[in-house]
Amino acid sequence: MQQPVRAAGVASTDVPRLVEHLFRRDSGRMLATLTRIFGPEHLELAEDVVQDALIQALKHWPVSGVPANPSAWLVQVAKRRALDVVRRERSFDTRQADVRAALEQDPALSPDEFAHTALSSEPWDDQLRMIFMCSHPDVSLEGRVALTLKLVGGFSVAEIARAFLADEGAIFQRLVRAKRRIRESRVPFAVPAPSALGDRLDAVLEVLYLMFNEGHTATEGEALLRNDLCHEAARLASLLCSSPITAEPRVHALLALFLFQGARLETRIDERGKLVLLSEQDRSRWDRAMIERGLTHLTRAASGDRLSTYHLEAEIASCHATAPRYEDTDWARIVWAYDTLLTMHPSPLVALNRAVALAELQGPAAGLDALEKLGGEASLGRYYLLPAARGELLFRLGEHQRAAAAFQEARGLARTEPVRRFLDRRLEHCRIPSEPSV
């Protein structure tokens, strides 16, 4: 192999961090191309090849220096390793010549082409195929999310486990089951035909939506935000929007939603890790470029004749993102969007959010009345936002004792530390001490 030229400014001690960055950025594209060439039944072999290339970088770069083009170096090592695998594995005997030719000639495995594409915004069809393979309906929903993060996003098992607060062993088994299902069901490595694209694309969008939501408001744990999940969901949605095969209006709407929400991520938690309400966030720190991109995609989403839930959620998020001040928010538009959402997809959570918006439009009494109608919803029984919202409205009505009881109930249901600390502060405002933390 050609001796690498040292990349300027990269110390040997920085190699692990660089390799981790390249793994996140490049492994999904290398893996997708190798899976296409090997076939989905050899997915784990493709993973081994990519993993080995990264291990070789960790081994050699601290000694010989980081190459001037690290991505090209990695893809070259992966290609050589893949050729070795094909020679060794008996399962390739009947088509060894075809697979070897594909590995040697495929432009996606040309080091120069791969490195160039890494710096461009061109869509990679192999990644689209990988996303659809991971999101096949034969795979469980939990398996789809984990597999997409692992294979397309370059997340490790440990990172996925931390993101969803699950045991690493459980995540590993989830991935094993998902891969087995792909193998046994002979899931194709392909974007579905146009006639079958609708339902399959819905499954893909659901995976990305769940991924972003978990990053935006974590289910439990020390951190409220997991920015890496949000950014990865937005990156994959961007990939879908950049392909003429999948750039449908609802895809643009979903990306618009991600961009509007993502523009505010850095202001949702202060420097001490405290939750900051939308009304108190520093809007000068919102990412205006992301908001402008969101508006562009929301405009493109309007080109079709089908109104999806993503359109309506993006519309709500745009009202928040474009309001110069909290007081300037178009609450009438937001309430209309929630009303429309309820007709399309009745949900207690949507009704809860509508009640909060109604309180801003018509006053806390109107919002509280709408909340009380949700008291019997079993699905909200363990959800802290219902009593927390009730506490806020009661506090605004001057009923501090009842507000404190609601905040105390919410605190008992909250599962993330930033939310618990926020509710503690609300209890202090009511001049009722919180119960000791368990």
Short description:
With 438 residues, the chain is mostly helical.
Verbal overview:
The structure is a single chain. With 438 residues, this protein is mainly α. It contains 20 helices and no strands. Helix 1 packs antiparallel against helix 2 (43-64), helix 1 (15-38) packs across helix 6 and helix 12 runs antiparallel to helix 13.
The helix/strand order is HHHHHHHHHHHHHHHHHHHH
Count every helix, treating DSSP H or I runs of 4 or more residues as helices.
20
The termini sit apart by: 59 Å
Q: In percent, how much strand structure appears in the residues?
A: under 5%
Note the quaternary state here.
single chain
The pLDDT mean sits at 86
Question: Using only CA atoms, what is the Rg?
Answer: 25 Å
- Find the structural class using helix and strand composition: mainly alpha
Helix content: 55-70%
Q: What is the number of beta strands?
A: 0
Question: How are the elements arranged and paired?
Answer:
Layout: H1 15-38, H2 43-64, H3 70-88, H4 96-105, H5 111-118, H6 125-134, H7 141-152, H8 157-163, H9 168-184, H10 194-216, H11 227-242, H12 249-262, H13 288-301, H14 309-322, H15 331-344, H16 348-362, H17 364-372, H18 385-396, H19 400-413, H20 417-429
Helix pairs in contact: 1-2, 1-3, 1-6, 2-3, 3-4, 3-5, 6-7, 7-9, 7-10, 8-9, 10-11, 10-12, 11-12, 12-13, 12-14, 13-14, 14-15, 15-16, 16-17, 17-18, 18-19, 19-20
